[in-house]
Design goal:
Elements (H helix, E strand, L loop, with lengths): L1 H18 L3 H29 L3 H44 L5 H22 L9 H31 L8 H15 L7 H10 L10
Length: about 220
Amino acid sequence: MIYFIMILGAAALIALYKFLPNRRIFVYFCATLAIVFCVSAYIQMQRNKGEVISRPQIEEIRQQQQIFSEWYADYQREIDHLDRNWQLYHSIIKHLRTAEIYELSTYEQLSELEIDALEEQKKIHALQVPENLKPEYAALILEIINKTQVYVDAQTKTISAATMAADPAKFADLKILNLIIKEVTIREAPAGLFTATEIAAIREMLVVPGEGVEK
């Protein structure tokens, strides 16, 4: 491909030399083209030079990749658990909205879910930035942890409030119960867990020059 472009360039120069009325214009054109080519070549050389790193630097990046990958695998398992809890919560309250009579099993399901949610909340609040991670990566992971803790607190608060409202000792009317749970969900439920920016930034920073983004 590059040879084809060079041939086309040479042909264009010959055509310009032949058909341009003023040879001085041709000289200026060639000089400008040569300057642009040299500047471009210099920039590319500097860029390539900047991308060359030593073997110890590569090994350090590999080590940081491993630390992050192990932490992220554990973190993702906890996120999957949070997602399952939230899906179960919405499944329970959806069934409650369509129920004709109040069922004690609804309260029992919410109570079990609340226990699971509280346990998961403890795990999320026990998350820590892994050791031996460079400060620039550690700061991003800390931000991910903080966001996740805010999320799990809101999720657990919502589930606990709904469980309390569904307590048979306090239950009065199915319609009122559904209104209370609806208001609780709207008021307390987390807006969402948005950590994609931080995770993408870490992966981008952990790329070894010449390789793809770490998955």
